[in-house]
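#struct-help
A.M.: can someone run this one for me? Single chain, 704 residues.
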Amino acid sequence: MTLGISAAVLTTAAMQLTSCKEAQRENPLLQESTLPFGAPDFNKIQPEDYLPAFEAAIQQKRDEIAQITENQEAATFGNTILAFEESGRTLDRVSRIFYALTDADKTPEIGETEKKVTPMLTDLENEISFNKALFERIRQVYDNEYETLQGEDKKLLEETYKSVVRKGALLPDDKMARMKEINMRISDLQIQWGDVLPDATNDAVVWVDRTEDLAGLSEADIAQCAKDAESRGAKAPYAIVIVNTTQQALLASLDNRELRRKVFEASVHRADGTGKYNTFPIVVEIAKLRAEQAEIMGYPNYASYSLEKTMAKTPDNVYAFLKNLIAQYKPKAQAETKAIEDFARKTEGADFQLQPYDRFYYSAKMKKELLDISDDEVKPYFNVDSVLVNGVFYAAGKAYGLTFKERTDIPTYHPDMRAFEVIDKDGSTKALFYCDYFRRPTKRGGAWMDGFQKQSRQRQQLPIIFNVCNNAKAPEGQPSLLTWDEVTTMFHEFGHALHGMLSDCQYHRLSGTSVARDFVEMPSQFNESFATIPEVFDHFARHFETGQPMPAELKERMLKSINFQTAYALGENLAATCADMAWHMLSSDQIPTAGQAATFETEALRQVGLLDAQIPPRYHTSYFNHVWGGGYAAGYYSYLWTEVLAVNIADVFAQRGALKPETGQEFRDKILSRGNTGDLMQMFTDFTGMQQPDASGLLAARGL
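D.P.: on it. Structure tokens below:
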């Protein structure tokens, strides 16, 4: 008893001391950063800073909204729309830093804070979306000033008004209340998704006991498997980790067919309930709630509701686009599959049945025989550092006049992250760019771009942009070498980064990548085209040991191989796209149960002619993060849609001079700098001279 009382007294004293120390220390998230560019000071920010920072920033936002609604003066653009635009600056800063970590370095502490913070943010969003006094002032400005405003002022008013209307500001009270409930529940479900899927993917690792079972892999890949095993608890000497897509790159090299099967099955079934993880209950509830949202807003399904604000506009337009592609794709896919199976039977016998886990393996062997090329032959020329500096940065320098200076004095959230000052052609600082390229257990799968700070002349903010990938990091002292797919992914994500870094907009809401989903992927897909421009390729494709460029003969074989058997890549994308659309074309009473979800996907693919065991969706429903955890619901089609735009733009660059500064400047002026300040189709027309995109070049660009 005495010991217990003494311990309690000591604990209380310790808590008081801790509280005193916390009171003396200013929360760095609530202060303007003193670092160059306003960069986040990760040397000062501690995990325990986030929750109190959110609490303070949310209250500040509430106070700022109250100042707008309690203003007794007549509503004007300045005291309502501009005041609304400028509200929540602290919250925006805190959120951008925090959610960068939830994606890229989600420690248990960060995960626990996310569970507390996300409902708070959803509650705030509900308050704002359904604040009748706020909406009435916004509507007054829209009614009174829309016709007289010009340029970005007019666009800001339009986007602000339409946004609150789409969220339900005109709904009657009972439907507003239900929308609030739905928003809160979806927020909770997406937190669950964000917890379960990374755990499922990490748990799907395939353990390997014997080195000989890894026959076919390069020494570097085997070393990586050993490193991955060590970082995941060393349950066996080697581990094959599962990446976010259905197919796994190592299947192209792995001789052991049974191990190939295990890896493929681990990927496909990571979260469908055949193991310890099952995301289907989350999926079907999100789908049902989205359908109900759409119905409350007066739409037959979520796809109709979501697509209204895109370039495509309607599901009919999306399906017309997809059906045309599917019709052209199917015979090519069937021929490709038959060719691979026939090739395999030459060595495996006439009865050999090609399985999806065999496809990459025999396709790679076929490519080696026909084109005399393999990934292991070219990877030594794709050192990640050279691809970044001599490829990605070099192309941006040639096309847009940018230079990049590494800033080792700016702290990052992880040692693998690097920071670069982006300097414009006139010598002025244009942006700060970070890159975080290597995978780790605390990072979700995939690759993406985001920013700690968006560009805004109104706020006098320079953009602070980052790219994240999931490349394997070589053991200490060895180079990190990339596949060609990983090279193009770096160029792709940097295209998004350029869209953010070269933004030159007045308002935060309109700047950078704040455009429709079926436009936002265009700059990134277009930027991939720079990777194969001879001058750029020769500059980065250099042997990691000798520094010599890739020999002309190897380069010719390698570039020819890029479009070898590309029906698969198109097919997996089409299948994922059609699965996404199928889920979001349902009314709320048509949503299947969790137990029926896998069958629903199968039937949906059968109906559009894409049920093909050899070419499964790039993401099955149970691990389709773009759709259930991200912002691509009824929007995954945008990758193919924007690929058409990108092909058209690449053709214009080729005609005018792909690395000609004048061409890059025009693209920068007419598209990259403009954010969402104008009509997106008009921007496309202004640069290309085309009234409508031309899809005829898509299959040709893919080698089909």
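A.M.: thanks! Strands lie at 206-208, 238-240, 403-406, 418-423, 429-438, 448-453, 464-471.
D.P.: also worth noting: The first helix runs from residue 2 to 24.
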